[in-house]
Design a protein that fits this description.
Elements lengths: L2 H18 L5 E3 L4 H4 L2 E4 L5 H15 L13 E9 L7 H11 L9 E15 L9 E7 L3 E7 L6 E6 L4 E5 L1 H4 L1 E5 L6 E2 L2 E2 L5 E7 L3 H4 L1
Antiparallel strand pairs: 1-7, 2-8, 3-4, 4-9, 4-12, 5-8, 5-12, 6-7, 6-9, 10-11
Bound molecules: N-oxalylglycine and manganese (II) ion.
Manganese (II) ion binds next to loops.
Length: 216
């Protein structure tokens, strides 16, 4: 290979690696570095046109539902939601891709949880109930970036902050799923590495494994 081609190949490789690196999206406290290995973010998991197509179907499924702001003690504020098992032929391939990223079909809950957060909606710190969901939770983000914060329940020095861009998927499993709370920050406190991340309407498609108790 001539020097010029080699140089070009190296540049391409560096550029691609940088593009693939998710480290800038995840900010981890020193104490949580080992635990952070149990989560991933993949950028551009879906394309813009797939997002558009999914949003059409989500809007139809939500019908005339209004955003729910009623219960201040609820874990989620300013949201509407639905659970979907049937998807249009156009969208099914994306849903299958999401499910395959989580595990084999017999391990998965059959429905996708669709959660629509209004621009002033947010999710308070919580741990998904072990009664209703197993060791893996994966979410595709649509429309707006948001910041997800994970906090170890017993050790305040262990925290992980993730920037979730639209089109990305995050996967939380095992230690970060069971020992950490997760939350989606409200717009006024939505910061990542000191940078304000504007929160607009954000829709997530969440795929979860079945509760461990149902697999015994
Ligand atoms: C939930 C939740 C996260 C998300 O619905 O329990 O934590 O990405 N959702 O919307
Ligand atoms: Mn949750």
């Amino acid at each position: 290979m001539c020097a010029k081609r080699l140089a070009l190949a190296l540049v391409t490789r560096v550029a691609r690696r940088r593009y693939n690196s998710t480290s800038s999206l995840i900010n981890v406290s020193p104490a949580a570095v080992e635990d952070a290995a149990s989560l991933t973010i993949t950028e551009s998991f879906i394309s813009n046109s797939e997002q558009q197509q999914l949003m059409k179907e989500v809007e139809l499924s939500m019908g005339r539902k209004k955003y729910n702001f009623d219960h201040w003690d609820d874990a989620i504020h300013g949201y509407k939601e639905t659970e979907k098992t049937e998807w249009s032929r156009d969208n099914q391939p994306v849903i299958t891709r999401l499910q395959s990223a989580v595990g084999s079909r017999d391990l998965l809950l059959p429905h996708i949880h669709v959660l629509d957060l209004s621009n002033d909606g947010y999710i308070k710190p919580h741990v998904d109930s072990v009664k209703f969901c197993g060791r893996i939770i994966a979410g595709v983000s649509l429309l707006s970036s948001c910041v997800m914060r994970l906090q170890h329940e017993q050790d305040k020095h262990k925290w992980i902050v993730m920037l979730l861009p639209p089109l990305s998927v995050y996967i939380i499993r095992d230690v970060t799923r069971y020992q950490y709370t997760h939350e989606i920050l409200a717009d006024d406190v939505s910061y990542h590495r000191g940078q304000k991340i504007d929160r607009e309407r954000r829709v997530s498609l969440i795929c979860r494994t079945k509760p461990q108790s149902s697999l015994l």
